[in-house]
Design a protein that fits this description.
By secondary structure, the chain is an alpha+beta fold. It folds into 2 domains: 102 residues, NADH Oxidase; 169 residues, 3-Layer(aba) Sandwich (NADH Oxidase). 35% of the residues lie in helices and 13% in strands. The protein is built from 10 helices and 8 strands. The strands form 2 sheets. It has a 4-stranded antiparallel β-sheet with strand order 1-2-4-3. Helix 1 crosses helix 2, helix 2 packs across helix 8 and helix 5 packs antiparallel against helix 9. The radius of gyration is 19 Å and the shape is globular. The two termini are 27 Å apart. The structure holds flavin mononucleotide. The site of flavin mononucleotide has 22 residues, from helix 2 and strand 7.
């Protein structure tokens, strides 16, 4: 059954605003949305002018970010009363579009994601502040794992030894990144640092004491605000990994969808989260992130979750910049 109702300009704007609110590496927002010729669907394109090549030479984080936008589009389509059928990489790896959403069918019951995730799209922000020591309840962890699994991605909440291993590797990665002038210059460009930050190594703006704090790279706010070195973080952060069996563009798009699905569900339940990406940006450290007990899984992302102060909204590109008014 189809609705036969073409997407209106208002529908397209609602979709693009939702897609554009997704998390992305360095808030690079590397996406473009374009209606299909019949206006019963939407294409999602990579905006390669917004790639971050020093930190992300393969484009892995770019596809993860686009995947997160794609998930928001699915949630927004449900809000519009439309079911979504997604085709990832319909023209093959490396080709555009990255995904095509067929929105021609009416929404099904039961609704696709359990909870209504739409209000959480605007409420979700990275929170890089210290969290409390309150554990995420096991029942909620199980729901987050199921949410990721629905997207063909495995979410694992790490045990204490795993958390300490990942924090050590993140600190090691952070130090290597800080010593790489090309990467540091690229990060500065994206963070649009105020002149007062010039000359200060980014690493020094984060926090490094592994006993009390987390190697945190902060990108929120305008200008960006950093967790000050004096702030104390939770005794043992709750870290989760997102892993996939394979490591191609489709897996990265799935990871992004799982990331956003988990993050929105966490937001609905009052949890805060942020990404710790440094360790997956350096191939040999990324390899060591794997828990050998998990077999040949590829770690795509490390997510810190917990209860604490919400993050603040970070800037987004205007809808006109990310939405093509008609099919190309
Ligand atoms: C692939 C990817 C990598 C990211 N890496 C980091 C990171 O290392 N540290 C961090 O604090 N935030 C990281 N983020 C979060 C972004 O900085 C954040 O989503 C962006 O600044 C927009 O802010 P928001 O999440 O509050 O909407 C990452 C996000 C994605 C999708």
């Amino acid at each position: 059954m189809t609705t036969e109702a073409a997407l209106t300009t208002a529908d397209l704007r609602l979709l693009a605003e939702a897609g554009g609110a997704a998390p992305s590496l360095h808030n690079s927002q590397p996406w473009r949305f374009r209606p299909t010729a019949d206006r019963l669907g939407l294409e999602v394109h990579a905006d390669r002018s917004r790639a971050v090549p020093a930190a992300d030479p393969e484009g892995r984080a770019l596809y993860v970010s686009i995947g997160a936008a794609l998930f928001n589009l699915r949630v927004a389509a449900d809000r519009l009363g439309r079911d979504t059928t997604v085709r990832l990489l319909p023209a093959g790896a490396g080709a555009q579009p990255c995904a095509v959403l067929d929105l021609s069918a009416p929404a099904r019951t039961p609704r696709p994601f359990g909870a209504d995730l739409y209000p959480a799209i605007a409420r979700r922000h990275s929170s890089r502040q210290p969290f409390t020591n309150r554990d995420v309840p096991e029942r909620l962890v199980a729901d987050l794992m199921l949410a990721a699994r629905d997207e063909d991605v495995t979410l694992t909440l790490l045990e204490e030894h795993g958390v300490r291993r990942v924090l050590d590797l993140t600190s090691e990665a952070e130090a290597r990144i800080a010593a790489d002038v090309t990467r540091e210059a690229e990060t500065r460009r994206w963070l649009r640092l105020e002149p007062s930050y010039d000359g200060i190594p980014l690493a020094a703006l984060g926090s490094h004491d592994r006993d009390a704090r987390i190697p945190m790279r902060g990108f929120a706010g305008h200008p960006p605000r950093y967790a000050t070195p004096a702030e104390r973080f939770e005794a043992l952060p709750q870290l989760a990994t997102l892993t996939t069996h394979l490591d191609g563009q489709a897996d990265w798009l799935r990871t992004g969808q799982a990331l956003e699905r988990v993050w929105l569900l966490a937001t609905v339940h009052g949890l805060q989260a942020c990404v710790l990406h440094q360790a997956v940006e350096i191939p040999d450290i990324r390899w060591r992130l794997r828990d050998p007990a998990d077999g040949p899984a590829h770690v795509q992302l490390v997510l810190r979750v917990g209860y604490g102060p919400p993050g603040t909204a970070s800037p987004r590109r205007p809808v006109e910049d990310v939405l093509d008014p008609s099919a190309g």
